[in-house]
Amino acid sequence: MAATYLLEDPSCGKTVAYFSLLNDSLTADPENRSEWNRLNRNIHNSKRRKQYPAVKIGRLAVSEEYKGKGIGSNILDLIKILFTRKIRSGCRFLTVDAYKDAVVFYENSDFRIISKKEDKDTCPMYYDLKRFLTETK
């Protein structure tokens, strides 16, 4: 189950953007040890696991009329704030299955590619929320 949120322009009643969030996990992929090792370097040895709780961004879309105004990036920042300061869900990571044409957008927001399997229409990516905490102090 996902929770979906709408961002509306009250002056005209139009939907500007929407996003949905759901529970997820980040699981070790034996075929991609290098990225998993990179991820684990930021976690103390005693707390390393083969799976970590995460929140997935199931959908994030901005209306064509409002694209290019930084709204998508602002939504990502809002989600980061929610899960580092407001909502105590016990997750450390955000995940997303980015469509190929959205990978650069997420990379610009410091998401990293988990796996580069070429057989999919999407690219699994993650963001370490601890990084956001240290950047905003």
TL;DR?
By secondary structure, the chain is of the alpha+beta class. The chain contains four helices and six strands. The chain has a six-stranded mixed beta sheet with strand order 1-2-3-4-6-5.
Q: Helix fraction? A: 25-40%
Structural class: alpha+beta
Number of strands: 6
Strand content: 35-45%
Largest sheet: 6 strands, mixed
Rg from Cα = 16 Å
Number of helices: 4
* Strand order across the largest sheet: 1-2-3-4-6-5
Written as H for each helix and E for each strand, in order along the chain, the element string is: EEHEHEHEEH
Task: Assign an overall shape.
Answer: globular
Distance between the termini: 33 Å
Rounded mean pLDDT score: 86
Descriptive overview:
The protein is an alpha+beta fold. The protein contains four helices and six strands, in the order ββαβαβαββα. It has helices at residues 33-40, 71-86, 103-108, 129-135, and strands at 3-9, 14-27, 51-62, 93-99, 112-113, 122-128. The chain has a six-stranded mixed sheet. Helix 2 (71-86) packs across helix 4 (129-135).
Task: For the structure shown, list the relevant keywords.
27% helix; globular; alpha+beta
Q: Secondary-structure blueprint of this entry?
A:
Blueprint: E1 3-9, E2 14-27, H1 33-40, E3 51-62, H2 71-86, E4 93-99, H3 103-108, E5 112-113, E6 122-128, H4 129-135
Parallel strand pairs: 3-4
Antiparallel strand pairs: 1-2, 2-3, 4-6, 5-6
